[in-house]
Specification:
Elements lengths: L2 H12 L5 E3 L3 E2 L10 E7 L9 E6 L3 E6 L4 E5 L4 E12 L2 E10 L4 E7 L6 E3 L4 E2 L7 E5 L5 E6 L4 E9 L5 E10 L4 E7 L4 E6 L3 E6 L8 E6 L10 E8 L5 E7 L4 E6 L6 E7 L14 E4 L11 E6 L8 E6 H8 L3
Parallel strand pairs: 1-23
Antiparallel strand pairs: 2-26, 3-4, 4-5, 5-6, 7-8, 8-9, 9-10, 9-11, 12-13, 13-14, 14-15, 16-17, 17-18, 18-19, 20-21, 21-22, 22-23, 24-25, 25-26
The structure holds calcium ion (4 copies).
């Protein structure tokens, strides 16, 4: 071996590998609850006016908050201990389609149901949530190619309970339990790839699993990645989100709470690892650490978010209570050299 190669190999062995770092563009107003409170965001893409898109975030002690892309609080819904939240447009009801926002409410172990008015951006809650029969924790929605809407509720006992969501005669959203999947340990974060009929769940101390999202598909699971040293993840695996482009390409993103990193995988099945990044500080905005929930969208929202938006809960905000940070997907593309 040449001396130069030996020197390089030694250098590689001694220099720690640090994740690529991006910086936030904006941050939301902090939540009012102290301690561990902010948890999981979802993004509503305002198709007719993308710059007016909104972020719905949970405060797991008090309810939901709605923020603009500048981080300004525009609506507060103090309806219970909302842990995780998700959104889907195109929910087929008896009198047309609506945009559904739903969340796991740990106050009464229900799936809390909201409709988002696409013309005003205002959320309206349904009086009664869906009784889940389990101690609810994580949550995500899945709308299949035929247009059927499903919800997945995850638990600390490792269950993933699938619900079919439909309207009853009164127009209320009701749920029918259609399947239970199981992994060995606590699960929280999950995300569905509607176009590929795939469900990803994060077993917090172990790794990311991929299931078929269809209720009659069986319980076969595939390990996407595991924690170090065998894999590239660091526990706890918390939020999962999908950067889904209309052409079928895109990325799966996972929050590694213990290393303040976000792991990125190809959306195409096989889920090739594309790199990890961290969200560092700017002069005006503090860095992101200890993240719970995340969301990402591929839609062009204008300005810095022309290639889409990544949102991450920040465990420690310098205001004193927690908040969410907004990152331009374009910055992530650049540091990870994504095509
Ligand atoms: Ca968790
Ligand atoms: Ca969490
Ligand atoms: Ca911070
Ligand atoms: Ca801050």
């Amino acid at each position: 071996m040449h001396a130069l190669v030996v020197t390089f190999a030694l250098w590689c062995a001694t220099v720690p590998v640090s994740a690529a770092t991006v910086q936030p563009v904006a941050e939301t107003e902090a939540v009012t609850s102290s301690g561990d409170a902010a948890d999981d965001p979802c993004i509503w893409v305002n198709a007719s006016n993308p710059k007016e898109s909104l972020i719905v975030g949970t405060d797991k002690q008090t309810g939901l908050y709605v923020y603009t892309l500048h981080g300004k609080l525009v609506q507060s819904l103090p309806d219970g201990q909302m842990n995780n939240v998700d959104i889907r447009a195109g929910f087929q009801g008896r009198n047309g389609v609506s945009t559904l926002v739903a969340a796991t409410n740990r106050t009464n172990n229900t799936i809390a149901i909201y409709r988002l008015d696409e013309s005003t951006g205002i959320l309206t809650g349904q009086n009664k949530g869906i009784e889940s029969g389990v101690a609810v924790y994580g949550f995500c929605l899945y709308r299949n190619k035929a247009g059927a809407m499903y919800a997945f509720v995850t638990t600390k006992e490792g269950e993933i309970v699938q619900w079919r969501l439909q309207e009853d005669e009164s127009g209320a959203v009701t749920g029918k339990r259609v399947r239970v999947l199981r992994v060995d340990g606590q699960v929280e974060g999950c995300v569905a790839d509607d176009a590929l009929a795939v469900l990803y769940v994060g077993e917090e101390t172990r790794g990311i699993w991929r299931f078929n999202a269809e209720p009659n598909a069986g319980d076969e699971r595939i390990a996407v990645d595991t924690v170090r040293p065998d894999g590239r993840l660091t526990a706890d695996i918390e939020g999962l989100a999908l950067y889904a482009k209309p052409d079928g390409k895109g990325y799966l993103v996972a929050s590694c709470q213990g290393s303040n990193e976000f792991a990125v995988y190809s959306r195409e099945l096989g889920n090739a690892f594309a790199g990890s990044f961290q969200v560092g500080a700017t002069n005006a905005i503090d860095a992101v650490t200890g993240t719970d929930g995340i969301d990402v969208c591929s839609a062009s929202l204008g300005g810095a978010f022309g290639h889409g938006l990544f949102v991450a809960q920040d465990d420690v905000d310098n205001s004193g209570t927690q908040n969410f940070k907004l990152v331009a997907w374009e910055a992530i593309e650049q540091v990870l050299h994504l095509p």
